Amino acid sequence: MRKNLVSRNNLISYKNFGRKNLIGYIFSSPFIIFTLAMWLYPFLWGIVISFKKWNLISPKQSWVGLENYLGVIKDPMLWVMVRNSIYFMVVFITITTITSLGLALLIKQIPKKYAGLYIAGFLLSYVSSGVAYSMVFNLLFAGDGLVNNLLRIFGIKVGWFTNPKIAMASIAMIVCWKFTGYYGLFFLAGLNNINPTLYEAAVIDGANSWQRFIKITVPLLNATFIMIIVFATIISFNLFTEPYMITGGGPMNATRTMMLEIYHRVFGLLQAGYGSTLAIVSAVITFIFVWAFRKLIERDDIYE
Amino acid sequence: MNKYIKCKMPLIYLVLTIGLFLAIFPYLWMVLSSFKVSGEIYTRFWPTKLTLGNYAFILKGGTGQERNFTGSIANSLIISIIPTISVIFFGMITAYSLRRMKICGYRFFENLVVYQMLFPGVLFLIPLFLIMRDWGQINKHSGMILRYLIDPWAIFIYIQFFKTIPESLLEAARIDGASEFKIITRIMLPLSKTTTAIVTLFTFMARWSEFLWPLIVNKDYDKMPLSVLLALFTKGEYQTYPGVQMAGATLLTLPIVILFLVFRRHFEEGISFTGLKG
Which of A260, A282, B2, B99 is most buried when burial is the number of CB atoms within 10 A of its CB? Predict the structure, then answer.
């Protein structure tokens, strides 16, 4: 019945089908042109360049087949960068999941009017600019910075950004600081979507709060976990501003990421082909990780 | 059991407040340090005397180096405001034509929107730079703006929102003789306040903080946005001026914090729509 009504209405208003399409296409033509010029064209060109050797300047571009791809895969630096990103990813996902889920669980229990204030406070770190907070943390965690001055009381001095073993973890902590409030908001939205009767039923069945958390909350937040892990994976492989500002890829390449290397190769060493290949390889690696994570933890059939 | 519940709420507030303190501490330290004299930055938390010297230093362009920071704030505003307006405008008319006018092949275009959101930006960096160079857009504001004039993410969330508007409303307007464009500006725009607030906030934030793209397409100091100029300044000759750095960082943070506080109300409401923005 409802369906009929809609289609009849459409018939009345769109007597002139061609005119509707004409106006509609005028409206969406900027998007279509933009897609062709700024998305499809560069996408294809990026693939073409990856099969070429070119220094960005000279008119001479020579086809080299798979040479760039072999070069990227054979370069030991690729595996250093992948290892760095995985290190970052593990620290970042672990800590940020704990802090943001913890935040959401706590905020859920306090009255709405206060919750709003806390959320706003935690979100302030999310809206900050990469360059600005990198500068702040660089000074806070410097060798003679505030944090080390505090730790000196206990006789500890940590080279947050100068010790190759922990430099990447330090950067991951900064990014955790940035995203805790934002991801907390996603977890809060997920928690609010859980039907409270499930908890009531569990209480009647004698489940304690830990059992309720593991058997109800965690499985029903599956979609939120997936989303946050996918975001975090993409962030891990696209890290640029923080290492660029703070460590420049050092110490001993411990914070070198693929974005830094692409920037360095293309705009420092003028290796357009190699850089494009690295970009494609980096995108493929990201896809593999996202796919693997979804395969591993995504569930469709939770308590239907 | 009773005793447990009694101390539970204060404990929650305590943990949240400590967390909140850690979350805003870097901001607090940044703002305080920007008013400190250089001797007190690392040694004292509360300054004994306040100075505007750091701000004066940075706004005058440093010593000897003529770095136009005032101009760079204007540059940042240009490359943030123009894309924000454009993203909203094109986001709306595209979403309207796809979702509400259902032009031929609208499903294909909607899928295209989603694909564009999912493809990682790293693939486009080098070829887009080359395109900008071929079009003579290097060292120009337009070069930093062009690729951000339309954002598939904005189209996507407008589509999500337009789905919820009842067709009868649009029918009534059409029967009254309103053109499709009038329907967008008179009906859709006022109805989609929350969505527009979210798009404004995220787009302005992303463009204002943008670092890599303007770093690549612009080498002209007079056209650099604040983020890039500040980064080069910090990594270059002013590594030993922490107070000045913090004054710059404060200037860079302030506009988006203000914008966030203005649109804060819409942020939470909009979170379900923005599900796909990393």
Answer: A282
